[in-house]
């Protein structure tokens, strides 16, 4: 019987259910949980990205309600402008519990920065902005011994990868140890720990560990890096459950899964051109795009994308050329493909309602696009898993933050807004630099019998409040 009212919750960013299931022989503790139906799949949000998913987990709001739909460009995150994450403060599960009089300890909550007043202790770090570690109780926190939290790092080069892996593994352990250090200094009704390093490591290390990846370098000293990272997470999850099982619910989740990043690309704008839905581009822009993609293909063939892109980054227009911003803008047009989720399987198409004479014409165009995308094939295989109107995915007052049409492709495909002659498909040349990508299925594990009943991150906020707060009837 799950009668405990105190809870420890952990988010391990990017931990993947399928990877754990596939490698259960390597994970004795995960295997035990799995066999007892206490390690189960957990659906992410659309799109399966950290920013919208963590916001949903914190608040219980779906992305069309909270409106935070940003994705992280690991190749250019330093130029990212911090979004409006104010929806988190006051609406998070720890705020709800704090208002109920529960004493809370919140450590390293992604995006929740700077710290605000809670009934207890909150320690957090910056992500897309300057600044140091922040806390609501500086009298209780030794800043000098605090490990790096909150922040992100520049992508490591191939030569730096071993050091990056070692340092990130050490940082992960320090974050767990620091959580325990402060958690044990007081008695808390609810505690939260966020660990974003699993996501970071998988993004950069995947190709070194996956023989099926076209950029796999062959036998190398990092070929077990992802496995070792999962084992480190397992060791720390086991410690949490063994040390605190008697008095605490322990709930460990991920915001999305992770695996091999898409190796193919779908040229969405070329498809729109081929359907007569947008105008073709002039010879000059097409020539630049063709040259860009020829160059990237050559770099990818010789596995020198990293060195080549590093050289071209020196030029002012490099990022615009990479993202085809100079060819296709996000300025309102009748129909266009916005920068929605980067080179990933989720994509979108805007259909500007005001450009159509009637609602019927608008809906007819949306249906035409949906029907057309569902017919897209590569080597006689369908590319799309589904294509939907945005309101068919989520309802909410900020649903217009989504493109009018959203589609999800098979995981080996990513969206490319550029052009490569008349081709509909190409290779993701940047896969060599960023080889790990997000998957829709994350994981939930814990010491409660009802763990198996939680199917989606959309349910996490309510679940945590129910098992930890006044609603818990024991």
Write a compact overview of the structure shown.
With 474 residues, the chain is an alpha/beta fold. It has 2 domains: 6-260 and 436-468, Alkaline Phosphatase, subunit A (3-Layer(aba) Sandwich); 264-432, no CATH class.
Protein architecture, described:
InterPro entries: Alkaline_phosphatase_core_sf (IPR017850), Phosphodiest/P_Trfase (IPR002591). It comes from Clostridium symbiosum (Bacteroides symbiosus). With 474 residues, the chain is an alpha/beta fold. The protein has 2 domains: 6-260 and 436-468, Alkaline Phosphatase, subunit A, CATH 3.40.720; 264-432, no CATH class. Helices cover 34% and strands 18% of the residues. The chain contains 15 helices and 19 strands. The protein has helices at 17-22, 28-35, 50-59, 63-66, 93-99, 161-183, 197-209, 225-244, 268-274, 283-301, 305-312, 318-322, 359-374, 390-393, 460-468; strands spanning 6-12, 39-43, 104-107, 120-124, 134-135, 190-195, 248-253, 257-260, 264-267, 335-336, 346-351, 377-378, 381-382, 384-389, 405-409, 413-416, 425-427, 436-439, 441-446. It has an 8-stranded mixed β-sheet with strand order 2-19-7-1-6-3-4-5, sandwiched between helices. A 4-stranded antiparallel β-sheet has the order 10-11-15-14. The protein has a 3-stranded mixed β-sheet with strand order 16-9-17.
Strand content: 15-25%
Let me know the CATH homologous superfamily of the largest domain.
Answer: Alkaline Phosphatase, subunit A
Task: Give the helix level as a range of percent.
Answer: 25-40%
Number of helices: 15
Class from helix and strand fractions: alpha/beta
Number of strands: 19
The side-by-side strand order for the widest beta sheet comes to 2-19-7-1-6-3-4-5
Average pLDDT taken over every residue: 90
- The N- to C-terminal Cα distance equals 8 Å
Our count of domains comes out at 2
The outline comes out as globular
Query: Which CATH-level-2 architecture of the largest domain?
Result: 3-Layer(aba) Sandwich
| Uncertain stretches | 314-322
Work out the oligomeric state of the chains in this entry.
Answer: single chain
Largest sheet: 8 strands, mixed
Per CATH, what is the topology of the largest domain?
A: Alkaline Phosphatase, subunit A
In the CATH hierarchy, what is the class of the largest domain?
Answer: Alpha Beta
**Roughly how many Å is the radius of gyration?**
23 Å
